[in-house]
Write the structure tokens for this entry.
Amino acid sequence: MVEVQIWGSLQQAADGRATVEIADVATVKALFSALAEAHPGLAPHLEKGVSVSIDGQIFNDAWFEPIPDGSEVCILPRITGG
Amino acid sequence: MPLDVKPGLEARKFKLVGTRPLRPDGIDKVTGRARFGADMSAPGMLVGRILRSPHAHARIRSIDVSKAAALPGVKAIVTRDDFGDCPDDLVDIRDNVMAREKALYEGHAVAAVAAVSASVARQALKLIEVDYEVLPHVTDVEKAALPDAPLLHDDMVTQGLEETPAKPSNIASRCQFGHGDVDKGFAQADLVVERKFRTEATHQGYIEPHACLATMASDGQADLWVCTQGHYYVREACAGLLGMDLSMLRVTASEIGGGFGGKTTVFLEPVALALSRKSNRPVKLVMSRDEVFKASGPTSSSSIWVKIGVTRDGRITAAEALIKFQGGAYAGSPITLGAMSAFACYALENVKSVGYDVVVNRPKQASYRAPGAPMVAFAVESVIDEIAGQLGMDPVDLRLVNAVNDGDKSSYGPKLPKVGLRQTLEAAKAHPHYTAPLGPNQGRGIACGFWFNFGGQTCVSLNLNVDGTVALAVGTPDIGGSRASMSLIAAEELGIPYEKVRCIVADTSSLGHNDITEGSRVTFSSGLATIEAARSCIQVLCARAARIWDIPPEAVVWEDGHARPAGPNAGEFEPMSLAEIARLAPKTGGPIAGHAEINAGGAGVSFATHLVDSEVDPETGRVSIVRYTVIQDAGKAIHPAYVEGQYQGGAVQGIGWALNEEYIYGEDGRLQNAGFLDYRIPVASDLPMIDTVIVEVPNPRHPYGVRGVGETSIVPPLAAIANSVSAAAGVRLAELPMSPPRVLAAIDGMKAAAE
Amino acid sequence: MSQVHVTTTINGDEVEYLCEAEETLLDVLRDRLGLTGAKEGCGSGDCGACSVMLDGRLVCSCLVLGAEAQGSKVETIEGMAAGETLHPLQRKFIEHAALQCGICTPGFLVAAKALLERNPDPSESEVRYWLAGNLCRCTGYDKIVRAVLDTAAEMRGA
Amino acid sequence: MRYEAPGTIEDAVGLLAAEKGLARVLAGGTDLLVRLRSGHVEPDLVVDIKHIAAMHEITAEDGGFRIGAAVSCAELGEHPGVRKLWPGVVEAAELIGSTQIQGRCTMVGNLCNASPAADSVPAMVAAGATVRVVGPEGRRDVAVEDVSDAPGKTCLARDEIVDSVFLPARPARSGDAYLRFIPRTEMDIAVVGAGVALTLDGQGVCTAARMALGAVAERVLLVPEAAALVGTTVDEAALGKLAAVASAACRPIDDKRGTREFRIKVAGVLARRAALIALERAKG
């Protein structure tokens, strides 16, 4: 079980939820599928590109990054730079 | 695959990493041999020039190129008609590269010509007849957000609101971050300070204008030479806009004369290719400085409101920000990064930041070093400073009370991994600068800054030559000495001298995809890939030695540049050096190489604390920077001289932003200072030496502990300088730049109020 | 189009060229003579990237017409090293990491050499003011100023 | 565009007189080339006066110096005699642009470019300098303050050339100074400039004072009210008065370089500071 945090203005797409509990996901790819299924409004955002933080480490486009059980997961706007 | 990262990084002893060898491109760059964007030529080359809108906002009724096309020496002309359908994510880029229905800012490209000489091209531009219907314009972020503002895009509906509005507006989107309950937090506060801030738009100010040389043959094969931070991105964007296969376009990154985020997108490149396609000749396009200011991608101007509540002992109970950025004529200002980073230095129970992305009749913004963060840090760190003053608390102590620690929940969401803010604050307090006496009319300012840093897709190819030297190919353009760092890392891993490695930046056909050199990612990501490539090369080296010795490959270890037999065979054979194994490679199985293709995650965030003393002339409002110290966490400095260089360069760009740099628009919506004469970047005589302190709190996700260093250094300066000027002038400065008229008006206003 | 015929000396070699009357010396050096070491950063004399010596004076070659070089002596960055031997300033710039992107470097070197020929022992402030017409956006000038001061000390034999 | 480099002033004047289109005189070129490149001016003829030998000379004349129109500001600064005579003028000339610009720019070019913000002009006006204008009809002398009365406009006919500027002898116990305000330390155009020259008697009482202000009006302003210093020992009260008359004389605009209010206030500040330097120099 992981608790996924959704950033403020994305919460509308997650039916107003600030956190979503998702069970049995071992990777980012599985997480995205589960999230899109639970809250279809999230799907276009996940598709367009977001960053995912797992226990404080931020990843882009990393489908197979493992998500340890009980880890803290946040969906963030895509991080870039200059 | 993530590399095996072992704890106890601090204990690692490096032979080369952390030393300061000479950079491999040094001699080329001090002799004038290095070839930058505009330095390349091709046989039969034409000169390209771009016609730009003189209006801030105008409907383009028609473009008549017939007279220009008839001018002898003109070989091709392109307009909006030459750029057709393209992928959705490139639509704004396409429209920015060549205006369609409307010109949305002064300088917006409207047509381009290729001709046999610059003078013919110039004449041709004058012969192009554009029929404009001039429209009302808006260049100010606040005014553009008003309901009756001139509308740039009829179909722009604000994204991110609870209810999608029925009417279009110039507000592209709203975003919100935070946690807790700020109202509850403010109710618990003993002191609440709030203030409004404004910053003007600034330009990255790279000294090399955009330049490229495009060659496309009639079979569609094309080459592009260009100064860019990301030649793979240039390839994707150009291929997408021109309907080409990626394989048909080879992009070579020239030496790049500064980027700072401004060379992470395309402006000239698709136009040059279109002109080359039409003329069947090589076409060189180079921007003038005037075009760079008017038609490349400066950063956002901003309007920011910040409110922070604290208890008597300095603990922050709530923090809130409302941030508006204009990002030029298209959506995409760095508002999310600005809003996320606003309070990232502090561990907060109740925090909220709301951002709006607003479009105006100005050039489409591009990234600028830690995009979005410096302006927001200016506002937040100014309020923190004001609170310290009102509480009578030392400003470092106030920050230490609230500074984030390892594992704290960040203001933008996730809990923080290992972080080094506290260490930079403690180093600031211990630095002699912090307690040095100040002269008359001088003030000291301090501010902290944060940046995310970034990893991303990266390829490295490491080829061993038969003489034991190494050809290292990376795909991230070198904008600040990264070839030296990559060579150091490869040499460190392989156990050979630095001089035995030669690192080059490969073109898009020679190496797999690499993300742009941005987000302070190169030393981290290309460094990781280099380590991985070197380690895969070492595996091959050990396997070859094992075959030569006829022992199992697991029984060979790599130490100090040598394969050594280990385990039961230890001491059985003389260790073989890399050079010996390389020499025998043709007989032992052929060439030896290592390579890595990764998507690097886990770039460590970084923090900095800046200290600055400034002096204000109370009669003229003129500000001099008299002392400056940068203290920043680098994780691990690979080549400390170039880490210091990043610290110093970021600080000085911040000094320019704080004091004198600004885009100045007239009532007519035209930029009034499109040149280095009146867009005033700091000159050598404006500055003191910039002292640096490299703090090293290793990033646990990198085998050496590296964090990005390029961007964080521009985050604290605006606030640090504002705090020092406010201390020296005796009045809070809340608008940038703190140009003399503004500072003098603030001083005079304070005096008038006191009377 | 009538072109101007110019005979001049560049880095010790006699050079002849034709140029249009409105072409700058910088255009001629870069586009006609292949000497691309001088850079165009602004075209208005504000950045110093095109610095060359003209008859012993430091100038911005973007503010000199190609036609004006008739009978003159022009020295560019390409003539600064003696064969394989770098000028001490060139060596010190590399040693001090006084360049990041390197676009401004040729201009700084030409300007700094002119300074040290006039004043072998400049103060930090003199270096900063002499070089105020050379813009650098990467380094914050710190390492450039140190490199110039260190070169001056070395050349004085200090 | 044609480029001509005549060897005599007569030939130069002849070329200008014969040209039917637009002609421009080229000395240092540091303004002209910028305007050429930006397309602000598209001349048919450019007359380079640097091949006229006399234009490069600095010659002693009547206790002062005549400075040729092609003398660069760097060359001027290297002339110990001129620097000793009118240090304020030389310092003003040395403020124009960078080291690179100094190697090319000239005081006469600075004057004929007709910008109200030209650094050397207020200093020359304060020093009482004149220029010699040469045309088909002969030569005439014009006071520096009378050369330009609006941005980009001069009193020169289309076939006239300024061949030199004359800095007169400096009276005993006199001193001059020029200060400008810019946001950076170098490379900016003056936001305000103030040139002051004053003369003392043996008792330290001011007997003559001239002040000129730059960048505060459509032209460089000679401020006759600087006579407020005459009869004083240039004490605090007199300096306060000078600052007040300087501010009162300004009629500036708001622009990208500064606001109206700022220029008015800073003109007074600079007038006062420049007068103090001039006073020190007058005292020797």
